[in-house]
Task: structure prediction
Amino acid sequence: MQKQPATASQRLFELPLSWLLMTILVVSLSPSVFAASFSTDDEKNTIQVFQHASPSVVYVTNQAMVRDRYSYDVRTVPRGTGTGVIWSNDGYIITNYHVIDGASQITITLQDQSSWPAKVVGIAPSKDLAVLQIKAPVNKLPALPLGNSNQLIVGHKVLAIGNPFGLDTTLTVGVVSALEREIQSSNQRTIRNVIQTDAAINPGNSGGPLINSRGELIGINTAIYSPSGASVGIGFAIPINTVKHIVPNLIANGRLQRPSLGVEIGPSHWAQRYGLKGVPILKVGRGTPAEKAGLQGVRRNQWGSVVLGDVIIGLGAEVVENYDDLLSALEKYKPGQQVKVDFVRDGKVRQTRLALAPPSR
Result:
């Protein structure tokens, strides 16, 4: 009699018991555990950095007081939202100046959804940075470790966490796509050495952290380049080394303090009329470092005609072609420091040294 082939159920019972147990175990695994076994090292790093950094990211709500045009009643209305990052456990929050510009009331929402009124401690419109402070418990204020933006190279992985379009704690990932970019601040000053990234940055991401793969803060997201207003893969962040220099100044003084040469600056077109790129001196203050160093401002000759004074073309190691260059160069020094000044007088390049004065009030 011919033997009939075994059915599927019969073949199942003929399999070794160990193989059946392993099959049942795999099938019973939850989707998240099963998926985790397929995670790449890069995915694991992204997950770890996000879980580590997200408690340090806050939601910034900006409200303004407006008067109703019909009733003349004053009421509070939402003006905008953005992102901030916890700087220290004593409640200091870093964000962009343009996020809180014009606000009469600012609220910070932490990751646990608790909300805290914030006061403005200091602002630097020329750097698009602002320092806020809230009075929250220390255990609610984890600060991110600070990295070194000077060590960044194009291609380094970066992560951005923010609240684009009001969608809180959103993660985007990319790379450093360029370094040493320049962008304009809201008061038309140039922000230099800016980080460019292709990590998606959209409205609402402003003021949020740019983080490296070690979970260190390496920049504050500030702007995007986009004809449509949404991310097209070109975003900018203020490097953390710039932020580290500015924040203590804002906490101590409320505004960015820069030392003074002791001069009044004239219109740039005065220098351009003579084919020069630089900053013309209008007037030199009495008893100032500039006067002691022999710098001269505009004067009149024996016929009463106005004669161009000295034109500053360099400060320290920096080339000075306009007033913005001069301010940026001064920001690298402190009062009392000696600095070399290059200038043009009567068509000849000259040089002097002076000790910078405290900022004028």
Notes: The radius of gyration is 29 Å. The longest strand covers residues 170-184.
